[in-house]
Automatic annotation (TrEMBL):
<feature type="transmembrane region" description="Helical">
    <location>
        <begin position="144"/>
        <end position="164"/>
    </location>
</feature>
<dbReference type="InterPro" id="IPR005170">
    <property type="entry name" value="Transptr-assoc_dom"/>
</dbReference>
<keyword id="KW-0472">Membrane</keyword>
<dbReference type="InterPro" id="IPR044751">
    <property type="entry name" value="Ion_transp-like_CBS"/>
</dbReference>
<keyword id="KW-0129">CBS domain</keyword>
<dbReference type="InterPro" id="IPR002550">
    <property type="entry name" value="CNNM"/>
</dbReference>
<dbReference type="InterPro" id="IPR051676">
    <property type="entry name" value="UPF0053_domain"/>
</dbReference>
<feature type="domain" description="CBS">
    <location>
        <begin position="295"/>
        <end position="352"/>
    </location>
</feature>
<dbReference type="InterPro" id="IPR000644">
    <property type="entry name" value="CBS_dom"/>
</dbReference>
<feature type="domain" description="CBS">
    <location>
        <begin position="230"/>
        <end position="290"/>
    </location>
</feature>
<keyword id="KW-1003">Cell membrane</keyword>
<dbReference type="InterPro" id="IPR046342">
    <property type="entry name" value="CBS_dom_sf"/>
</dbReference>
<keyword id="KW-0812">Transmembrane</keyword>
<keyword id="KW-0677">Repeat</keyword>
<keyword id="KW-1133">Transmembrane helix</keyword>
<dbReference type="Pfam" id="PF01595">
    <property type="entry name" value="CNNM"/>
</dbReference>
<dbReference type="Pfam" id="PF03471">
    <property type="entry name" value="CorC_HlyC"/>
</dbReference>
Length: 448
């Protein structure tokens, strides 16, 4: 093909344009794939003997360096495409106008040719050189990184002097601005960022509601301590050394638990843990005069401030299902079980003997909540900002608002009203939560 000035466009010119577009796409795909792929999956493929996975592992282990290589490759391919592509396409269009013998000036033809060539090259660059490779790399990151790693390593080694120079210059400029250059470690996400990623994945349908809740519980799990999830001392069901065997046996059969703390005189003196099967063994052997201390197992004790992840580790190590929680004065604060800990991750685990009421019940427009709910959970559920350094539960906080708490006592917080609905002796066990109307809320705020 030849224009009036003798300019020709060869097949090589067209092939070069397509090559540069695909080359740009290669580096884009390599960049997104190495960031998206899971390093643990690459390690697994290496262990399975996948040869290409070894190259991929080398790339992901030095991500900073190879990201710089992909950026250099994208820049060179884009510059080459702009240099070769627009002039080639413009020449094709100019020749086409010449062949049509249209009555237009050479300047007009040139302007039209430049505009069309710019649009064509931009379209090819964005669609084939950017968007398509990016989508491929995101949805097929594993296969893409395995395919691109080898050529990328070759490119990196060939261009290493340029990459080193460019990286050094860029890092020096960043330091001049008082900023420390970023590293691979800083690409890791903190807790809040991961929570946002989980939320976005849930909203896009990648995670269902159960999986989203599980992720949230995992983060909350590390912040929980034994005091926050234990069965409090007042709710502990104990067997007693100084009581007749039949009384202890009757209590064990009535309560239907598998393990009971064994107390001597009172709950501050827990001498062991008794398993229900050992009680039945004693009953069947006719050894009812035997002291329960002889069949009790050594109790595991943990401080009330210990993180529950550490409590779980101790229970696993000791092969025990129950630990006695000790307060700061050395007395018994409560008990915590492996079930209590696992429920922090997966939610309530009910068996055929559990008759516990749900923590939250709805009655029309009102809610009934268990007073053992943590203040943090109440704040999150109702979007409140209740703070207390002395108590952990909403029941304890409401109790502290009164000199003599009683059923029907009310506490207003923002546009909500907490009403003591049930008590066990002096302990608040259940609260009713009402939403105040705007007028009532303003009046409550004025009185406060």
């Amino acid at each position: 093909m030849e224009d009036p000035l003798g300019t020709t466009v060869s097949f090589f010119d067209i092939a070069l344009i397509l090559f540069l577009v695909l080359l740009n796409g290669f580096f884009v795909a390599a960049e997104f794939a190495m960031v998206k792929v899971r390093s643990t999956r690459i390690e697994q493929l290496v262990l399975e003997g996948n040869k290409r996975a070894k190259f991929a592992q080398g790339v992901t282990d030095k991500m900073d360096a190879y990201l710089s290589a992909t950026q250099l490759g994208i820049t060179l391919a884009s510059l080459g495409l702009g240099w070769v592509g627009e002039s080639t396409i413009a020449t094709l269009i100019t020749n086409w106008f010449h062949d049509l013998n249209l009555a237009v000036t050479a300047a007009t033809v040139h302007t039209i040719a430049v505009i069309i060539s710019f649009l064509v090259i931009t379209f090819l660059h964005i669609v084939l050189g950017e968007l398509a490779p990016k989508s491929l790399a995101i949805h097929r990151s594993e296969g893409t990184v395995l395919w691109t790693a080898g050529p990328l390593i070759v490119f990196y080694k060939v261009m290493y002097p340029f990459i080193w120079t460019l990286n050094g210059t860029a890092n020096g400029f960043v330091r001049m601005l008082g900023i420390r250059p970023a590293t691979e470690a800083e690409m890791a996400h903190n807790e809040e960022e991961i929570r946002m990623i989980v939320t976005q994945s849930h909203e896009s349908g990648m995670l269902d509601e159960t999986e989203r809740i599980l992720f949230d519980n995992i983060f909350d799990f590390s912040n929980r301590v034994a005091r926050e999830i234990m069965v409090p001392r007042t709710d502990m069901l104990c067997l007693y050394v100084d009581r007749p065997f039949d009384d202890n046996m009757r209590k064990a059969e009535t309560e239907k638990h598998t393990r009971f703390p064994l107390a001597k005189e009172d709950k501050d003196n827990i001498v062991g843990i008794v398993h229900i099967k050992d009680l039945y063994a004693v009953a069947l052997n006719g050894s009812k005069n035997l002291s329960l201390e002889t069949i009790a197992r050594k109790p595991v004790t943990v401080p009330e401030s210990m993180p529950i992840k550490d409590v779980l580790r101790i229970l696993q190590k000791s092969r025990s299902e129950l630990a006695i929680v000790i307060d700061e004065y050395g007395g018994t604060a409560g008990i915590v079980t492996t079930e209590d800990i696992l429920e922090e991750l997966v939610g309530e685990i009910q068996d055929e003997f559990d008759e516990e009421r749900p923590f939250i019940e709805m009655y029309g427009e009102d809610l009934s909540i268990d007073a053992r709910m943590l203040i943090d959970e109440v704040n999150e559920y109702f979007s409140l900002r209740i703070e207390s350094e002395d108590v952990d539960t909403i029941g304890g906080w409401v109790y502290a608002q009164f000199n003599t708490p009683h059923v029907g006592a009310k506490v207003n917080v923002d546009n909500l009203q907490f009403i003591i609905s049930e008590m066990d002796s002096l302990r608040v066990t259940r609260l009713t939560v009402k939403r105040l109307k705007s007028v009532d809320a303003e009046e409550a705020q004025r009185l406060a």
